[in-house]
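Honest question from a wet-lab person: if I give you the sequences of every part of a complex, can you actually get the arrangement of the whole thing, not just the pieces? Trying it with mine:
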Amino acid sequence: MFTSKKSFEPQWSEEPPREGTYRAVFKWGAPDGFKHPNHRLYAMLKEKFNMTDDDFREKRKTGDEPVVCDAPVRISQDQVGWFKNTIGAENVHADDFSRVKYASGKTLEEAMMLRNGINGDTADLVLHPRDKEDVKAIVDYCNTEKIPVYVYGGGSSVNFGVRCVKGGVVLVMGTYMNRILEFNETNGTITVEPGMMGPEYEQILNDAPERLGAKRSYTCGHFPQSFEYSSVGGWIVTLGSGQQSSYYGDMKDIVVSQEYVTPAGTIRTLNYPSTATGPKVSDIMIGSEGAYGVLVSATLKIFRYTPGTRKRFAFIFPSWESTVDAAREIFQGEFGTPSVFRISDPEETDVALKLYGVEGSPFDKIMDFKGYRPRERCLCIGHTEGERGYSKNVYANVKRICKQYGGMSLTGYPVKQWEHGRFADPYMREDLNDYGIMIDTLESGVSWDALHRLHQGVREYIKARPNTICMTHASHFYPQGTNLYFIFIGKMDELDQFRIFHRGVIDRIVAHGGSLSHHHGVGKMIGPWMDAHLGKEQMGVLRALKKHFDPNNIMNPGGSLGLDLADWEKRKAPGHRR
Amino acid sequence: MFTSKKSFEPQWSEEPPREGTYRAVFKWGAPDGFKHPNHRLYAMLKEKFNMTDDDFREKRKTGDEPVVCDAPVRISQDQVGWFKNTIGAENVHADDFSRVKYASGKTLEEAMMLRNGINGDTADLVLHPRDKEDVKAIVDYCNTEKIPVYVYGGGSSVNFGVRCVKGGVVLVMGTYMNRILEFNETNGTITVEPGMMGPEYEQILNDAPERLGAKRSYTCGHFPQSFEYSSVGGWIVTLGSGQQSSYYGDMKDIVVSQEYVTPAGTIRTLNYPSTATGPKVSDIMIGSEGAYGVLVSATLKIFRYTPGTRKRFAFIFPSWESTVDAAREIFQGEFGTPSVFRISDPEETDVALKLYGVEGSPFDKIMDFKGYRPRERCLCIGHTEGERGYSKNVYANVKRICKQYGGMSLTGYPVKQWEHGRFADPYMREDLNDYGIMIDTLESGVSWDALHRLHQGVREYIKARPNTICMTHASHFYPQGTNLYFIFIGKMDELDQFRIFHRGVIDRIVAHGGSLSHHHGVGKMIGPWMDAHLGKEQMGVLRALKKHFDPNNIMNPGGSLGLDLADWEKRKAPGHRR
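Yes, you can. This is the full assembly:
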């Protein structure tokens, strides 16, 4: 019998949250979806944070209480009546759970608040528009009545993008507005409504011969980590980038044209592959995060679905410097680009090797012997795509360059592992939070020449906090630079303490040459830094557009993109409650 | 003796225009640069236009008279004094020739006017700013004094981009502001002033090891037909595309960041490879054609200079349809892209084969025999670039697809010929004009599914005019579509007649699903169509930005981008004189 040897394992939550509870609001992904820390990660957490099994015997606040929303409703019964008449009573909801759920994104801060029964900024009324006409009627009416309008896509915002800071109505786009409007195989485009969710969208394209009458299968090319719980509209309005953006491009590159309903009218941008008719309104609208108008449809590029041509690689490098140099040479080499390409800094590499059981294994000893030492070595994984000859040529060049910069091949196995779990990691957050451990991320776009300064500057700040893990990777590449994605984990469950720490990371990012965001967008969380980051002249441009589209400031008001900062500034003080 | 057999040849102009003459204003390119019609083209012109040698014995109006500009100067002596004090008296010119030259682009219409001694819209004062500070001072002062500000880059505008419709001052950017400001090999970028001309810019990059201390040679990747007489700033503000755009991207893709001096302040856009911080101000400024502000510097991507990897191809196809289908398959095939890729419709193909002496040759008979018939067959030429394996793979796929769609290889010889003369063709215009033959072009961006409709619709209009050549090609390719470039040649030297005909082509383009411009920009010529083409909502956005940047409408006023149409509308009537 081995029972005596069985080590303690925390009782990770395995139950879907009860309907109507706070946990049902903040839990990531599918209600019955879970990914728990494995025993190695559990051991590491205890070791890093000076915790014992005893710390994992009882959960902290789990948010299992029913949502109660007692914030006053600022919409009159007459107004509610108008909405019910216009879009159907069944599509207008004012229950407590809806008011909180559709005003909440997926930041750690919101989860911490909700665990404590703090609703934050709630909607007054939740609307499920059926089509573009509904959206037009709602926006026109709200503009007349000066009712704030928020938009909820997949709800995966990690920067308070969907928080209804001023109350008002929130439009849930996924209920009805999730249809394919047009498929144009000749032009290689598809026109979709914004509430279409990632997996459904990709499945339709993969099954294009059966479902769209196409000659072949396609892929959307956009796979953010939030893929399973984010919407096409959200990808667009936040300037998202998928994990395969180095080949398919950022969302900005994938969008051909868009249609927005704004208080100043409905705008359908030109639908040409390229045109020289002045500044492109599509480029002006993209990334506007609901502050100029509501995206009601978009025409996107599609790509050939050729999983059979994928070639996987993984390398271990002796140092972060050599890894970065190899990555730069790969993306400046003009031989095409890998699709997935990710490099991890030494701390992330050490954690990964530990979690996969490599640490201390015979293979670890071989790496060490060959000069790939803990706290120095760096992982690089990726794969290529596209037409067979293209994919093969990129693969050959990647291998050549990695070896040239001191990399040792680990075969394609690690990237297969990564592909398998690529969308599942966020599920672990709830487990850690249940025992008072915070895990959060911030990310930044950066030019090659500022990369090391940014990396060191942010790490210095995070690591100054005792017993805090800081893992960094780069995962979106351009000839001119990349992004840095910082993951920080520590024992911390005090909301105010977390806010101060988290905002400090943002301060460090901008102070060390990073952009405020590479692909998470701005939302209301990063808004306060926008003026300093873009400068008053550029912010003046964004505000002039805001004034044009939305003179009454009803579209996603209260700090979005830093456009109406005054209100938000008050909220910067830790501990603010509405 | 063979003299008796020597056929008549027109006395094409071989003399550089005399300084200070109208011809010195409108002649394309280098004063001593010429390319004359060869004897085959000459024969074709006579045949097509029912002309005889007698029609070529005497030139029409050649513009050899000295420029006289008697338009009143609307700038006071005090104001002139301020300019002289501020940027140096030697940089302020008010002579007749300067006032006309720096207010003239390279449209056929302007050339026809100048041949007739009609100046059109002239500047009051010509300024040669020495640096950004000069530009700032000028724009601030002009904003206070309400003096119109125009910008002259290379002067190759083909849509009245530089015409000083409201008088005022014109800034000549090429005199001083043509410097490299920064070279950043790590980031793969270079920062230049806007007055840098194409050949100098490319030469510096080719010679980067010697001139910039670089590790390798680079190329700018942007080679419009106007390359030798256009400026980097002009490429940017008009949304230009080079002949190799299918590989290097349009100018919009090449620009990383920009700096503009506007009446609302100086804007330096963010300099990141990618960022998700709201609508990107660089995208908002690009293509603004001087109507929002003056571009004073730009940071651009550079590319590896690898002429040794170039692989050339040429094919003849049995029909326009099969040529277009092959092109579409090539640009949707995801194996990389050729750099130069051009397809000619049957009329352009027939003209090309005639000019190169293929018509009637034994090779012509072989083509005919194999099913590549006159009035049906189409030429395709191009080359690949990039890293060796990439270039080779693209080449192999292009060959495969061309053959699959019925193309027969003509070896790489035709594209070598094309490369040799690629920038020289515009020189022939003056020769034709000298004998009353007009040659002009218009072009349009188009989705694949609208290509044939656009092609047929425009041809129908042009060919309805008796004895008129209409050649069409596509030369910039995307997975979603391409452009169509229409060249029309006919016997016509009446200005009003030309205007009506030319504006009719534009009408046809927009009526048949083409964009108003693919890479020539809008200028003041196409402005009147902008409202209908973009719609009032999109034009409202461009006008809101105009109001923000330039509330006094001093920046390139008088019809640019169709922003202040009222003034321009008056000018649409044929025969208008100022």
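Two things worth pointing out. Confidence is low (pLDDT under 50) at residues 572-578 of chain B. The longest strand of chain B covers residues 437-447.
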